[in-house]
Design brief:
The chain is 77% helix and 0% strand. It is mostly helical. Helix 3 runs antiparallel to helix 8.
Length: 204
């Protein structure tokens, strides 16, 4: 589909990554707790804009690689699959009670704060550089059209996920804080999914 090798797996991978606790998720939860649904919605759009900036920076690197070194692209895909597996392994082996990833959000300007939190995440652009090549089919790749489709898909899924998360932010936040074992189990389940994605995509 539009140069995306496995659109279903691409959407599933996005959902898995969104569900993984991180700065963006905690920015949404904290903004909703302090600013209500309006604050959560503003933070959602802030996260989306920050993600779009980072992913288009990554796209520029991926596009240049495709244009100048198409034979190297397969190697980059393999490295990306290994990177996903490494993230998953770290989640599986993470010690209980480790860093929660929570962030500080002041009252007001929720969208701007969420945007900056997302933009200043040092691992995000590395993640996108590893993530995009895994789902690009060089044989059917359509240049900018493919990248726009991938970026729009991420933005749409993030918007729906963010609005749903913000709608239940207070209940979700309370349960996660009260049940650390549940949070750890979800983190390990996400790790298993990431390892699975890495094995599947690396063997294509």
């Amino acid at each position: 589909m539009l140069g995306i090798s496995d659109f279903g797996a691409y959407c599933a991978a996005i959902l898995v990554f969104l569900a993984l606790p991180g700065p963006g998720t905690f920015a949404l939860l904290t903004s909703t707790a302090k600013g209500g649904l309006r604050g959560g919605v503003a933070a959602t759009f802030g996260v989306i804009v920050g993600d779009q900036v980072l992913l288009w920076l990554a796209v520029a690197g991926v596009a240049a690689l495709l244009a100048t070194h198409p034979t190297v692209f397969q190697g980059v895909q393999l490295l990306g699959a290994l990177y996903l597996g490494w993230i998953g392994l770290r989640l599986l082996l993470a010690r209980p009670g480790g860093a929660s990833g929570q962030v500080r959000i002041a009252n007001g300007h929720y969208g701007r704060q969420a945007f900056l939190i997302t933009l200043l995440n040092p691992k995000a652009i590395v993640f996108y550089m590893a993530f995009f090549p895994l789902f690009i089919d060089p044989a059917t790749h359509r240049g900018l059209v493919t990248f726009v489709a991938m970026a729009a898909t991420i933005a749409t899924i993030t918007l729906v996920y963010g609005l749903l998360l913000c709608s239940f932010a207070q209940a979700i936040g309370t349960r996660v804080r009260a049940h650390r074992r549940l949070a750890q189990a979800l983190e390990r389940l996400t790790g298993i999914f990431l390892i699975g994605f890495g094995i599947r995509l690396g063997s294509q």
